[in-house]
Design a protein that fits this description.
single chain; mainly alpha
Length: about 260
Amino acid sequence: MKQNLSKFGLRRRSIVMLMSILTIALLSSCGSGESINYRDPESIFKAGIVALDDNDYLEAQKLFDIIRLQYGTTQYADDAQFYLAEMNYKKKDFVIASFNYSMVLRNYPSSEYAKRALYNSALCYNELSPPSDRDQEYTKKAIQAFSEFQAVFPTDSLSGEANKNIILLRNKLGEREFNTALIYRKLFSWKSALVYYETVIEEFTDTDFYEPAYLGKIEVLKEMRRYDDARTTIENYRKKFPKGKLSGEISSLETSLPIK
């Protein structure tokens, strides 16, 4: 009988302890929820920032969406839209982040976040820009976005950073055209190679591939036996690069051309 009572007492204590733990957990949960006044957009926004800082992205998105959808005319609407984009950027969801940054510009053009949203949108495309051997759609979008930022905020300190990024991105585009020319040369498709060299010469004068494109074009013209065009290109090269790094190779090519 005493053993049964003892077992009963242990079970009772276990149940009481379990109920206590559950009660504490429930109260903690309720307490955190009650700290947010869902009728006050400021309270919701601050809670969203806390969730974002804690990397609780689901909670942050829920709270920012509440502001955007239910309190879209309050002073916190643009804040919520911007920090929603910041959350996407933090998660490396760059496509969605760029869209949400653009929504700041579209819906709240006079917002204090407009400048940063425009620049960060360009940063998203910059992150999405792939290696030069792949499709360069996002590279072009990044250049366009950085250029737009420079046009709107020409004296801002970030305009200089935008220019540095544009140089790197354009260099990637020039590299793609130049390497495509090399591929066609390996295939002995001289006309196609010539087209890509000429594209670099005409459109990417600010890249590392401008001068090498002249050398490539002259070599292809020689292969095509277009010797007069090769000589004309050599003359143009010397005008553009009077102290060019490839002057020696260009001169060797010139002496290898048949005498007129």
